[in-house]
Specification:
The protein is mainly beta. The protein has 1 helix and 11 strands.
Length: 130
């Protein structure tokens, strides 16, 4: 059973950068696509982006973060990263990673109730001060 642990959250000033990590333990991590999501207080969970399994050459981003956030993976370290730049106060949220063998499941996880990623991490809090 794959397990995910996020880290790297914290307090950062507006305009700053932060890199989150999603570390996986368990078998066959490279066979999973991995997505990042966030949930701000009193808001629904929001899709950020997802990276394909294996080499991870293809990444799909939400329009709201395109150009500011970058997802990458290092299968040798069983880790997926979310590099965030140009942070804004509205980026304040708990950030989650999730994994599923099917890329599309992660893309629609917040819009299709029938699509549930196989595993979620526990989340890491990012606070952006103005």
């Amino acid at each position: 059973q794959l397990q995910l642990v996020e880290s790297g959250g914290g307090l950062v000033q507006a305009g700053g950068s932060l890199r989150l990590s999603c570390a996986a333990s368990g078998p066959s991590f490279s066979t999973y696509a991995v997505g990042w999501f966030r949930q701000a207080p009193r808001k629904d969970r929001e899709f950020i982006g997802v990276i394909k399994r294996y080499g991870g050459g293809s990444v799909y981003y939400a329009d709201s973060v395109k150009g500011r956030f970058t997802i990458s993976r290092d299968n040798a370290k069983n880790t997926v990263y979310l590099q965030m730049t140009g942070l804004k106060p509205e980026d304040t949220a708990v950030y989650y990673c999730a994994a599923d063998p099917i890329f599309h499941t992660l893309v629609v996880a917040t819009t299709d109730e029938d699509k549930n990623p196989e595993v979620w991490g526990q989340g890491t809090l990012v606070t952006v001060s103005s």
